Amino acid sequence: MTPHTESSVLHLESGDLHVCQDGPRDAPALLLIHGSATSSRSWNALVPLLTGSHHVIRIDLPGHGRSAEPADRDYNTSEQARTLGTALDRLGVEQVLAVGHSSGGYAVTALAEQRPGLVTALALVNTGPGMDVFIAPDGPGLDPARWPPADDQIRRFASTGFRAGHPIPQELVNDLRGMTYHAVTAAMQASTAYLSRQALPDRLAVLGKPLLVIFGDQDRRWCPSSAADYRAVPGAEVEILPGAGHTPILEEPRRTADLLLAFADRVSRHSEGPLNRPSHGSRG
Question: Can you give the pTM of this predicted structure?
Fold first, then answer.
């Protein structure tokens, strides 16, 4: 957890949701949503680089990190988006620039589909645009009969989430081990189903929201050249990070933060001010 982080739990009908907030509450809001089988801690290296000018909100998706599994055990991406919208309402946040890493990009896209007045712009970090560019993993997956898995099993499973040779942080190993097998597999299946129904560029093209796409050119889960697919979205900005793998938010936090901050500034300056409308803190 980063210095001065305010950690809280929202008691929602769907289950308890863990939230972290950093930075001035009257600054423009940035929502950071992690990918499958990880948690808000995956943003730890990035958050201190963003809080000088933004109210940074991280939410553990249901069944991840310190959030409870959904009461109905439903990990449908649209349901996750509804939960995020409810959480932001509870926090008194009126507008956000929503940032998703990996499958977190599907949750923030679904949020923008449901709540276009809430999401002013989107930034996607190594979020695969369509299932046709997914790189299938080699070797066996996680075994439900041997759950929770050992550290070395998790590291093998998670290795493609980073460029070759990059160490996997212990806190992320702990995050996955702390999840149920159902949460891990159901969340991944839900992301696949969401993407299979309609490719992400097609979803984003009709939203009319400013879009930034960041992609590491060493991604081993999604074909890196597929970042170009997002150019089908009118006005989309696509940035390639040389030498970064699937998780530049941990591998290259400074370069990632610089791109996000510059994008947020451009969106703010070229809008009529929606990103300048502050959030109002918690309403209980």
Answer: 0.93
